[in-house]
Amino acid sequence: MSIYLSYFYSLLIIIGLEVSLLKPDFFWWALFALLIGDLFFIWLATHRKFNMNFFNFLISPFLFMLGGLLFLLFLDSFFLKEIIIIFLLIASSVFLRRLIVRNYYQYDCKNHSLSGISRILNMSIVFFFFGAFFNLHSFMRFPIWMLVFFSYLVVGLTVYQYFCISKIRSGYSGLFILFSSLMLAELFYVINWLPFLSHTKALLMVSAYYFIINLARHYLVGTLARQVYARYSFVTGLIWVVAFVSSRWT
Prior knowledge:
Blueprint: H1 5-22, H2 27-45, H3 52-73, H4 78-104, H5 113-140, H6 144-165, H7 173-191, H8 198-220, H9 226-246
């Protein structure tokens, strides 16, 4: 399998998204085509087999593309849309390239290279989806219970995928997936009522996700220490303080 497949994948993404910007009626067709493209290219990169290995590697790029496209729906700035498109393009192609290297060129695969890009994708997924969920409730009056359920699924899938790719195997990993998803779904319900812009609320959700998942990872691999807890607490607390102080109240 050639690593240049990732470049062809990038070309399809940029064509589909740029055309959808110029012709908004084409957006839903582009969304459908790109999601089918995700299925096809991940299938190729996982030795053309529909198994749990394929499913585990599909979660992040599929949700990343879907969340990014939903997030684009609520952006008005053409400049911001272009930034998101470039980010979707680069991150998706890097993930596919590293997946191909991992499965077909293992001698050239660096340790943690795939788990690193997966972590970036998963945090972006949380930001994109929660930003879209807050907007769906505010502007389109989607039922909050439905969005809480979807937020539970999104978080659960990203945590499960990260544990799988990072090869974190523990008897407690299932409980961590369950409770971290439940905690963030409840936090989504609470934050939804804050009078902040949707992007600010999504940032708060990402910081909470960052805090919970990293503590869970360190606990499961036996490296959780006071310094680790203090570091993640400081970063998360700083984000929340800055968000509350500098955000525009609506």
